[in-house]
Specification:
about 325 residues, alpha/beta, eight-stranded mixed β-sheet, 12 helices
């Protein structure tokens, strides 16, 4: 009788686990469908280097590529900068590989790899010598672009850009996301459901000490970032970034083009001293722009400063 009771208990537990997995899987599918319906692709697709990259663009004239950050997508740029782009600007907003609607090549994809793929996509579109703008993680990619193709980047604008290694450890969830078996299960069954509950709090924390702008609440494509594949790509990006920057930062003295470094002095995501001020010290021809009392997502909260910094770079590099 004991063995029969044990079998029944095992069967009950197995049924609960299977039912929970099926429920979470269904939730993940629904949330993904809702996210993609709310934030559909807004651009064209370009095939390069084993990836299919989604690239949005607006305007004609001086080409300016704006690279989004971690847990972001091209819509961060189309929602903030596209509507206020002046005549004579050709703004280009790609989804980084693995993010938004861009696919990601197999194997490790460093910021240098992402820069190469974005560069090749832009060239394939017939766009040459763009000013390169990078926000947050996109700053690391923009720097890698400028270091790989120095003669093709007339100017660089970094917005709270990640540029140097830091001391604090990487959050455990990003390590788990890359683990065999457990990682894919978590990414597909847990992240979408739990992530949907945490998006508002995460956004509010990024803006501290400032309030969350209405534009961010309405337009930020955060729901796209908790889709399983996108979260896995973000987790890989975060895991690999520190060591990548440790090596890349030794080369910043090679940068000869004008560089504008915009920092928010209350940024709790990309520390302004570790990154922006250190880069300003190591790149003599750089200009430092400090936004007092500001948090991390300056594209949404301080796009006037962002636009002015890009405008000055356009003028300086004619």
């Amino acid at each position: 009788m004991a063995s029969v009771g044990g079998f029944r208990l095992f069967t009950l537990i197995a049924a609960i686990l299977i039912g929970s997995a099926l429920g979470l899987g269904a939730t993940s599918t629904v949330l993904t469908q809702r996210a993609e319906a709310r934030f559909p692709p807004e651009g064209k697709f370009v095939e390069v280097g084993g990836a299919r990259l989604h690239v949005a663009e607006t305007g004609q004239g001086r080409p300016i590529v704006v690279i989004h950050g971690a847990f972001g997508a091209a819509q961060d740029v189309t929602a903030t900068l596209f509507p206020v782009a002046p005549p004579g600007w050709h703004l280009i907003a790609p989804d980084r590989p693995g993010h938004g609607y861009s696919t990601r090549p197999s194997g490790p994809v460093t910021p240098a790899d992402q820069a190469r793929l974005l560069h090749d996509a832009v060239r394939k579109m017939g766009i040459e010598r763009p000013i390169v703008v990078g926000f947050s993680y996109g700053g690391a990619v923009a720097l890698a672009w400028a270091l790989q193709y120095p003669d093709e980047v007339p100017g660089l604008v970094l917005l709270n850009g990640a540029s140097y290694p830091w001391d604090s450890p990487t959050a455990l969830i990003y390590d788990i996301a890359g683990a065999p078996v457990v990682g894919p299960v978590m990414n597909h069954l847990v992240v979408p459901a739990v992530g949907a509950l945490l998006l508002d709090a995460g956004g509010a924390n990024a803006f501290k000490p400032e309030p969350v702008p209405e534009l961010f609440t309405e337009k930020a494509p955060l729901p796209l970032t908790i889709r399983p594949a996108s979260f896995a790509a973000n987790a890989e990006d975060v895991r690999e970034l520190k060591e990548f920057l440790r090596a890349q930062s030794r080369r910043y003295g090679e940068l000869k083009m004008p560089v504008t470094i915009v920092i928010a002095d209350q940024d709790n995501s990309v520390g302004p001293d570790i990154h922006g001020r250190a880069l300003h010290r190591d790149v003599p021809q750089s200009k430092l722009v400090v936004i007092p009392g500001a948090g991390h997502p300056v594209l949404y909260a301080h796009r006037d400063v962002v636009m002015n910094s890009i405008r000055e770079m356009v003028t300086a590099t004619r």
